Amino acid sequence: MSQDSAEILAIRALGWLAREDDLLEVFLGSSGLARDELAAGAADPEFLASVLDFVMMDDAWVMRFAEAENVAPETLRLARADLPGGALPEWT
């Protein structure tokens, strides 16, 4: 997956979170952000990575997102690997 595709998926995850009031409050509480700061974060790849990290904290959240957005659950992991801090280590 390209970084652009990963960012698009993460933006979709952010939109999904914004519609999930119960989870949005948890995300805001854990990130320390206010609602009005979410839109600005959508332009920051590191913030988008944190959105995917949050969603992937719970398998049930992954499944809810995947179903709502009609994507395969493993797509989140692939997208996360292409955002800052997500590269898998290279073993020698």
In percent, how much strand structure appears in the residues?
under 5%
Poorly predicted sequence stretches spanning 5 or more consecutive residues: none
Mean pLDDT across all amino acids: 89
The CA-CA distance between the termini, in Å, is: 23 Å
Beta strands, count: 0
- Overall outline: globular
Number of separate helices: 6
Helical content class: 55-70%
Rg, Å, rounded: 13 Å
Largest sheet: none
Structural class determined from secondary elements: mainly alpha
List SSEs in N-to-C order. HHHHHH
How would you characterize this protein structure?
It contains six helices and no strands. It is an all-alpha fold and 92 residues long. The longest helix is centred in the first third of the chain and has 17 residues, at 3-19. The two termini are 23 Å apart.
Considering the chains and any ligands shown, give keywords for the structure:
6 helices; 92 residues; mainly alpha
